[in-house]
Design brief:
- By secondary structure, this protein is mainly alpha-helical.
- It has a domain of about 450 residues.
- Helix content is about 55%, strand content about 5%.
- The chain contains 25 helices and 12 strands.
- The strands form 5 sheets. A 3-stranded mixed β-sheet has the order 8-5-9, with no helix packed on it. The protein has a 3-stranded antiparallel β-sheet with strand order 10-11-12, covered by helices on one side. Strands 1-2 form a two-stranded antiparallel sheet.
- A hairpin with a 2-residue loop joins strand 10 and strand 11.
- Helix 4 packs antiparallel against helix 5, helix 11 packs antiparallel against helix 24 and helix 14 crosses helix 17.
- About 0% of the residues have low confidence.
Length: about 650
C-alpha cells in the first residue's frame, strides 16, 4: 500500500507541475534564459568531444567565458545528461520526475528506518517533502541548479543509518565483521557522491544551509531515538561523507575558487528585517501558508533587488503546524511524567542546544541592524549574496520531522495515524491542485530556438561553432538586453552583453576591453575579437589579466576555442593536483563498488552452501510421514 501511494503521489506531483515545462503560454521561467542556452552549449561540446572531455571554457556567451570553473556550471548533472539524449524541455521534465521521486523515497526511508514512523505517518511526511514549495517553484522559475535540494533526505538517511537493524547486532546476521565495514563504507561513498552532485549541479549558493539541515536532522535523531543513535558512528560518517564529496568535486571547487577570486560580486547591499516579529511572521507564513513576498516588500529594508513570489516559496502547508499544535495541547493537558529535560543525557543535551542554535541561524542572518549588516558583508560567501532568504529552506525538512515525532510520541495522534495520513494526503493534493499559480504561467522565456537547433545538430545538418559577437540596438542606437539574448548561440553567435550573473546582474564587473560586435577572427591592435577565458580563471599562469583576448599569434587557439575544441592553456599546480584527486577518487569509487559486488556474490554463494535453519542437512534422510529416521529406529528398538 505504501508503495502504491508513493507512486501515485509522485505521479500526481508530476501531472500538476509538468504543465509549467512549458506553461500555458508555451514558455518557461525567466531564469531559463541563462540555463537553457547553457544546456545547449553543453550539447555543443558533447557533440564535438564526447562525455569525457572537460568543457573548461565556452565561446557562446559574452565573447568567451569559463564554463567548468563557473560555480553554477551544470555540465555534470542530470539535466545536462538528459539533454544529450532528448531535447532540453523534455530533459527538464525528466529532472522534475527523477528528483521528486528521489526526494519522496529518501524521506520515506528517513521517516521509517531512522525515526521509526508508521507507514501512514511516513507517507504523509514524504508527501509533504515531495510537494515542498522550494524545490518545485525554483525549478519552475528557472533556478535549475536547485533540483539537487531533493537529495537532502537520502543523504541524511545514509549518514544516520545504523549498521544493524533494531534489536540486532552485526554478529546476529553473520560472523564476518568486514561485511559491516563495507556497509558503512557504502553509506559514506554514496552520501559523498550526493554531496559532490550538489556541487557539480551548481547548487553551491545553498549547499551550506542544506548541509546544516542534515546536521539538524541528525540532532533530531539523537534526541528522539537515543537507543539507536551512535553519535560516534554518525559523526564519523558525516565527516567522511563531506570530505569524500569535496574530494570527488575537488577539480571544480578549486577552479571555481580561482574564478571567483577575480569576481567576488560583493558590491550589492544585503537586505534584512528590522522588526523581529515581521521576520518571524514572514517565515511562518511562507512555510505553513502562502509566500510572504508582499510582507517582505513592505517590511524588509536595505533592499537593492526586489524579491518576487518565487523567493518566498517554502510551503509545506498548514498540516504540520496543526499536528504540532494538537500534540502540544495534548501533552500540556496530560503532563504527569518527569519533565522531559530531566530525562536527557549529555549527548541529547548537546543535540538539543545545537538544534536550537541552528534553527536561529536563518533568522539571525536575515535580521537587519547596521553594525550587524556590516559584519555580514565581511563574511566569506555571505558577502557575495544579494539576499539570504534562501536559508529558510532549512526549515522544510526539520518541521516535517517535528510533525513525524509529534504523531509518534502523542498517544492520541498515534492511535489515529492512518486517518491523519489519509486525510492529510487528500488535503495536500487538494491544496496543490487548487493553488493559483498565475505568476508562473506568466513567465515569458521563449526556448523554441534551443529545441530546434539541437534537433538540427543531431540530424547532422550543422556543426556548432561561434563565428560572431553581436549586440542588439533600438532605432536610437541604444544597446538592448532582451531576455532571450543568450539564445543567439543557435545562430553561431555570442551576445556581447550576455546573461551571466557572475559578472553582476547588470554586468558591472564584465571587463569588455577590446571586445566589439563583429567576426570573432577579426584582428585589431594585435588581438582577435574573442576573449581568452583562461585569463578569467588562471591569469597569472597564462601571463594575462582577466578579460584579455587571444593575441594574433594565438589565432589557432582562438579558432579551436570558437569551434568547441579544447586548446592548450596553463593551470596552477593546485588545479592539476585537484584534477588528479577527482580522477583518482572516481576510479577508487568504481573499485569500491566492484568490491561490494564481489563481497555480495561471495556472501550469497556461502548462504547457498549452508543448510537453512528449517531444513535438515543434506546427509540426513528427510522425515517420512512426519517421522525422522532416528524416531523410527527408536520405535523399532522399543518394540523388540
Amino acid at each position: 500500500m505504501a508503495t502504491l501511494l508513493g507512486v501515485a503521489l509522485v505521479a500526481v506531483h508530476f501531472l500538476i507541475f509538468s504543465q509549467f515545462f512549458p506553461n500555458q503560454q508555451g514558455l518557461l521561467g525567466h531564469d531559463y534564459s541563462m540555463f537553457m542556452p547553457h544546456l545547449l552549449d553543453g550539447y555543443y561540446w558533447f557533440h564535438h568531444n564526447g562525455l569525457f572531455s572537460v568543457p573548461w571554457f565556452t565561446p557562446s556567451f559574452c565573447g568567451g567565458v569559463p564554463k567548468f570553473p563557473n560555480p553554477q556550471s551544470s555540465f555534470y548533472s542530470v539535466p545536462q545528461f538528459l539533454t544529450f539524449l532528448m531535447n532540453p524541455v523534455w530533459a527538464l521534465q525528466g529532472t522534475l520526475l527523477i528528483f521528486s521521486s528521489l526526494g519522496y523515497w529518501g524521506f520515506y526511508l528517513l521517516s521509517r528506518r531512522i525515526f521509526a514512523a508508521s507507514r501512514w505517518t511516513a507517507v504523509l511526511a514524504s508527501g509533504l517533502f515531495l510537494f515542498n514549495g522550494f524545490f518545485v517553484h525554483r525549478l519552475m522559475v528557472g533556478h535549475m541548479t536547485y533540483h539537487a535540494f531533493m537529495v537532502l533526505p537520502m543523504l541524511t538517511f545514509l549518514v544516520a543509518r545504523p549498521l544493524s537493524l533494531p534489536g540486532k547486532s552485526p554478529s546476529h546476521e553473520g560472523s564476518n565483521s568486514s561485511i559491516w565495514l563495507w556497509r558503512a563504507g557504502f553509506d559514506v561513498v554514496i552520501a559523498g557522491l550526493l554531496v559532490a552532485y550538489m556541487i557539480f549541479a551548481g547548487m553551491v549558493n545553498v549547499i551550506v544551509p542544506v548541509m546544516m539541515a542534515v546536521v539538524m536532522l541528525l540532532c533530531l535523531f539523537g534526541l528522539a531515538v537515543p537507543s539507536r543513535f551512535n553519535w560516534k558512528l554518525v559523526s564519523v560518517k558525516f565527516v567522511l561523507a563531506s570530505v569524500w564529496g569535496g574530494v570527488l568535486s575537488a577539480a571544480q571547487l578549486v577552479a571555481a575558487l580561482s574564478y571567483l577570486k577575480h569576481f567576488p560580486r560583493d558590491q550589492y547591499r544585503l537586505p534584512g528585517f528590522e522588526n523581529v516579529w515581521d521576520l518571524v511572521v514572514a517565515v511562518g507564513q511562507s512555510i505553513f501558508f502562502q509566500p510572504a513576498h508582499e510582507l517582505v516588500a513592505k517590511a524588509m529594508v536595505n533592499i537593492q533587488w526586489g524579491l518576487d513570489r518565487h523567493e518566498m516559496e517554502y510551503g509545506i502547508t498548514f498540516i504540520p503546524l496543526a499536528i504540532l499544535v494538537v500534540s502540544a495541547i495534548w501533552h500540556g493537558v496530560h503532563f504527569k511524567q518527569m519533565p522531559w529535560w530531566k530525562r536527557l543525557n549529555s549527548i541529547q543535551w548537546f543535540c538539543l542546544v545545537s538544534l536550537v542554535a541552528m534553527l536561529a541561524v536563518p533568522l539571525v542572518l536575515n535580521y537587519y541592524q547596521p553594525s550587524w549588516n556590516s559584519f555580514l558583508k565581511q563574511m566569506p560567501l555571505i558577502k557575495s549574496s544579494s539576499s539570504l532568504v534562501r536559508w529558510f529552506c532549512i526549515y522544510i525538512p526539520v518541521f516535517i520531522v517535528f510533525m513525524v515525532l509529534a504523531i509518534e510520541n502523542t498517544s492520541l495522534l498515534k492511535r489515529i495515524a492512518m486517518p491523519i495520513g489519509g486525510i492529510g494526503i487528500l488535503i495536500l493534493v487538494g491544496i496543490n491542485f487548487w493553488t493559483d499559480r498565475g505568476f508562473y504561467h506568466a513567465q515569458n522565456y521563449d526556448y523554441q530556438a534551443i529545441n530546434q537547433v539541437r534537433d538540427v545538430i543531431k540530424e547532422g545538418k550543422w556543426s556548432p561553432a561561434i563565428d560572431r559577437v553581436v549586440v542588439y540596438t533600438n532605432d536610437k542606437g541604444e544597446i538592448q538586453v532582451p531576455l532571450d539574448r543568450n539564445n543567439v548561440l543557435v545562430n553561431g553567435q555570442s551576445y556581447l552583453f550576455c546573461y551571466e550573473s557572475i559578472f553582476g546582474y547588470r554586468l558591472e564587473n564584465l571587463p569588455l576591453k577590446n571586445l566589439r560586435p563583429g567576426l570573432t577572427n577579426q584582428e585589431s591592435n594585435g588581438v582577435v575579437n574573442i576573449k581568452n577565458p583562461a585569463c578569467y580563471a588562471f591569469p597569472e599562469e597564462n601571463q594575462c589579466t582577466p578579460g584579455d583576448h587571444f593575441s594574433v599569434a594565438e589565432k589557432s587557439k582562438a579558432q579551436a576555442f570558437t569551434s568547441f575544441q579544447p586548446y592548450e592553456f596553463e593551470m596552477p599546480t593546485r588545479q592539476k593536483m585537484a584534477n588528479w584527486l577527482t580522477l583518482l577518487s572516481l576510479i577508487g569509487m568504481i573499485g569500491f563498488w566492484g568490491g561490494c559486488g564481489f563481497l555480495y556474490l561471495r556472501k550469497s554463494k556461502t548462504e547457498e552452501r549452508e543448510p537453512k535453519a528449517d531444513q535438515p542437512p543434506q546427509n540426513e534422510v528427510p522425515p517420512q510421514n512426519g517421522r525422522s529416521s532416528k524416531q523410527k529406529a527408536h520405535k523399532k528398538k522399543r518394540n523388540k
